[in-house]
Amino acid sequence: MAERTQAGGSGTVAIGIRRGRRRLSPGRNRTMPRLRMEAAGTPNPRTDRPPVTNRAPVTVYAVKGAALVAAFAITLWAATNLLVRTSGEISAAVLALLAMIGLLNVAGAVVREVFGWRRPVARLAERLDAVGAGRLRCEEFGALPANLRALRAPLLAILERNKTLEAGIKRVESEARQRVHNRTDALERRLGVLQAVASRDALTQCGNRRAMEEGLPKLIAGCRGRGVDCVLMMMDVDHFKQLNDTLGHPAGDELLRSIGQVIRSSIRDGDVPYRYGGDEFVIVLPGGDRASAAVLAERLRHLVDGLTRQHRTLTLRPQLSAGIAAISELPPTAGAADLLAAADGRLYAAKRARKVQRVA
Question: Does the pLDDT value for residue 348 go beyond 60?
Fold first, then answer.
């Protein structure tokens, strides 16, 4: 304790100033370990804090500045009273110096807050956003200020993990899309097979009546759109009932199966055969004419005659009759039903005539 005594108007005032130095034990000195951890790039959980990306409002700086100014004013007031009691007079130079020191302390605190923490954190947030958006690679992250340098290694590790997770998610999504695509293709193929089975006659392998009702209007419209004719040939097996009654339905089914095979092997690629019902068949010839249809009908009649020669026990062997109609022969407003009716009328005209060549 050092004492200084000064005589004044009111007596003697003793001022005591305690001088001393705090001794630091080795266990309490944490400055060097923290520096070593920062030099090694290892984050210190006691001193390092996660970056704050949002900026503090202006009122925060105002409150901090006001608190510092108030503290400075209180200190200045206390020092002034102390000087007044001790010496009785105030030195303007001392007050100005104290005021300047206080202002410098306030300004230094604000500068440290803005340039030492807020701006580096804002720049760090911008870099993290750039890396997350893909505009900046992790290798280009760059160095950080001294007070944030310990965060660089954990942040880069987090970004690398995030990058790995994103790559894994993209891989899983790609595999899922590929599986869905493969499954969709398989379902579409299966659906196509089912549609083909549903539209095909199981016995003759020709299109069934439902397929004809759906496809014939489209074939006629396509021929009209291309400016070509559409010919329809309707065929019927004469004396087919006698064959069924005499030799049984298996023999009738075998004959119909053979006729379907003969028709499918005799037509062109663009021609479409249908089983209209029972022993009746329909062949649509897009782009054909009556002459070519008559030639086809005669060839089919001879082939079917060859198929029925084995049935010598029958009084009347099954034969093929045909009726041919073209869309060009009908009114412009005629449709699929009109074309079928015209071919059906000519078929029954040929059957009534009972000629050897049963084509009308």
Answer: yes
